[in-house]
């Protein structure tokens, strides 16, 4: 499954991005991190595309109370909105 995540940042985009980049090995456990794309919307918002996501593994990683990612992101993330992305046929095609 492919996802688009809107990240609402409480620190700054640059601070969040530094932490995000430092945990790429964790994302490799539940997605194809070689295809992950990140875009800055503004200093308090980012968009992240994740590809070939294993939802069960991602849920476990996100909700793990012993995760170092949780502690690191706590200072940077207000909330996340997660959307499923599916390929569609263009209207009229």
Keywords:
single chain; 93 residues; alpha+beta; Alpha-Beta Plaits; 4-stranded antiparallel β-sheet; 31% strand
What is the structure about, briefly put?
The protein is of the alpha+beta class and 93 residues long. It has a single domain, classed as 2-Layer Sandwich (Alpha-Beta Plaits), CATH 3.30.70.100.
Task: State the order of secondary-structure elements, H for helix, E for strand.
Answer: EHHEEHHE
Please give the count of helices.
Answer: 4
Please give the number of β-strands. 4
Radius of gyration: 14 Å
| Major sheet | 4 strands, antiparallel
Biggest sheet strand line-up: 2-3-1-4
Through-space gap between termini: 24 Å
Please explain how this structure is put together.
This protein has helices at 13-22, 24-27, 55-63, 68-74, and strands spanning 2-9, 37-42, 45-50, 77-85. The longest helix has 10 residues, at 13-22. It is built from four helices and four strands. Helix content is 32%, strand content 31%. It has a single domain, classed as Alpha-Beta Plaits, CATH 3.30.70.100. A hairpin with a 2-residue loop joins strand 2 and strand 3 (45-50). The chain has a four-stranded antiparallel beta sheet with strand order 2-3-1-4, with no helix packed on it. The chain is α+β, with helices and mostly antiparallel strands and 93 residues long.
